[in-house]
Amino acid sequence: MTVSIYVPRDAAAVALGADRVVAAIESEASARGLDVAIVRNGSRGMHWLEPLVEVVVGHERIAYGPVKPSDVASLFDAGLLSGADHPLCHGAAKDIPFLKQQTRLTFARCGITDPLSLDDYRRYRGLTGLEKAIAMAPEAIVTEVTDSGLRGRGGAGFPTGIKWKTVLEATGSRKYIVCNADEGDSGTFADRMIMEGDPFVLIEGMAIAGLATGATKGFIYTRSEYPHAIATMSEAIEIARREGILGPSVLGSGRAFDMEVRVGAGAYVCGEETALLNSLEGKRGIVRAKPPLPAHKGLFDCPTVINNVISLASVPVILDRGAAFYRDFGMGRSRGTIPIQIAGNVKHGGLYETAFGLSLGEIVDHIGGGTASGRPVKAVQVGGPLGAYFPRALFDTPFDYESFAAKDGLIGHAGIVVFDDTVDMLQQARFAMEFCAIESCGKCTPCRIGSTRGVEVADRIAQGIEPEKNRELLGDLCNTMKFGSLCALGGFTPYPVLSAMAHFPEDFSPAPRVEAAE
Amino acid sequence: MNLHVSGDVGTRTLAIIDAMKDLEGPLLPILHEVQAEFGYVPQESLPVIAKELNLSRAEVHGVVTFYHDFRDHPAGRHVLKLCRAEACQSMGADAIADRVKALLGIDFHQTTLDGAVTLEPVYCLGLCSCAPSAMLDGAVHARLDAASAAELVQEARR
């Protein structure tokens, strides 16, 4: 009898040796004359257990991890194929607390299915959202998305339905759906995991967006740093086209929608929507002034929906289960679920999808299990390189858009990076400025010049040169960047800098220099 | 085609353009393909691209130089990219980078004298939950420590 074994194809698993584990399993099985069928699934998101090997025993999938190639022989000795106990065994995968406590709507299939099997996709309710959308008027689809309360998961939190409505009502010979998959924020990997682990859900979401707005062409703009996501996504699009999900008649509806993957070239600023559009057009990734909004004049001056991967990948479940089902999760004006990405110096790093509203402390201490180093948590950066640093004192902040804004922070793309007490917050503030200087598109002065001056001022503080005056100067500079920059790169770089200064003042008061400056 | 294309670079560039110029917004895909073909974007290919896409040479030059990925000269035989973004910093990426630089005897953006390895910084590979991470010729590596980073350098040296 053939035993099915799942080993993820996700880049995180591969980076930790999943391909070598597969080779070891195959050779061990063949040496023992055992029949195994290996399925390369997406990741379940429990990255501290990767590579996570799952063996199908009856109706259960028994999990083992983290598995090294050198563990494989002992796993077979213990009785891997019958789900036997072993020091690396965690029992049934779905019962692991980290997974069991989640509410997986957008990531419902990720880690369970073969990402490139359309049969798997359909078996787990795939395409039902698109089928329902085909039977609906465009206005009704837009209303459903609006009523769900879905807001842009890229960071800005703009209501997705309102964006779609604007494009639906705009006139244009051609309209576009652009998926922003330029996930450049450190601490985030949800877009990558969906593209590698459940690409059809993104295709389905984009096709629904096309039907809702009258757009016939879609682009997924992703990063050259994501070769695995590019390969899986491109293959999934080929399959979808072959099976009539994409093309001149989406699922036989008579309405056309097709799409392609486009690859950036290492510019962080292209994650900003107007810079992304310029890049897609083949120009320098320079930010455009708004208005006009992309919804009116976007890609090639045509009305364009530009949404984050997770926003679009959340649409199929909304259409499938209804707006009310999705809206019932969450708190305040943050409805539905959010895939929180727990990263950095943390014991249990990975992806945790849950309704909005958990406190930051619950996420870091209980779900993440504290630091990997075992030292105390000093700071967590929430929302990527443009997000604020939070001290323990603010760990009661509930995870939603408004609560974080009220604490001078942002949830961004929901990435959380944990730092232990060895971190020097002045150096983190300096890095924020350095990163902005490296990645600035150069269009506006506060970002282009301010970031370089910011690095210099931080260095002067570190050297103990007129620290009080330079701290004030750094604050002033942040203010100029915050209110004078054209886009979020220059405008939000002050968040990590100001939060580091506000919450960790001790790191900004180095011992005064003994020698005189000259 | 009334175009004076001289030499091998021009001809090969032209073949790439011919295959891709019907794409919407073809410049970036063409540049990626040119870099895949030559290992960098040769100066000689720029006027060919400009002419074929009806752009000025300055526009093409502007695009090539804007993006970190495009090189104006060949890299070493292997390209090692180390992530130096925040999540990797929190797990000691700076120390790993110092170690790798010392082992290779070069800094970021440099190539070893024997032409074996080019070292580059990268800002996030999306492996932030298993930091620090690196990419060697497109293959990803995570949870690096001093020993595995040294192994990676060995592999790159070969």
TrEMBL record, chain A:
Belongs to the complex I 51 kDa subunit family. PANTHER family: NADH-QUINONE OXIDOREDUCTASE SUBUNIT F. This is NADH-quinone oxidoreductase subunit NuoF. Residues 426-471 form the NADH-ubiquinone oxidoreductase 51kDa subunit iron-sulphur binding domain. PROSITE patterns: COMPLEX1_51K_1, COMPLEX1_51K_2. Its cofactor is FMN. It comes from Mycoplana rhizolycopersici. SUPFAM superfamilies: Nqo1 FMN-binding domain-like (SSF142019), Nqo1 middle domain-like (SSF142984), Nqo1C-terminal domain-like (SSF140490), Thioredoxin-like (SSF52833). The lineage of its organism: Bacteria, Pseudomonadati, Pseudomonadota, Alphaproteobacteria, Hyphomicrobiales. Transmembrane segments: none annotated.
TrEMBL record, chain B:
Gene3D superfamilies: Glutaredoxin, NADH-quinone oxidoreductase subunit E. InterPro entries: NADP_DH_HndA-like, NuoE-like, NuoE_N, Thioredoxin-like_sf. Its cofactor is [2Fe-2S] cluster. Keywords: 2Fe-2S, Iron, Iron-sulfur, Metal-binding. CDD domains: TRX_Fd_NuoE_FDH_gamma. Belongs to the complex I 24 kDa subunit family. This is Formate dehydrogenase subunit gamma. It comes from Mycoplana rhizolycopersici.
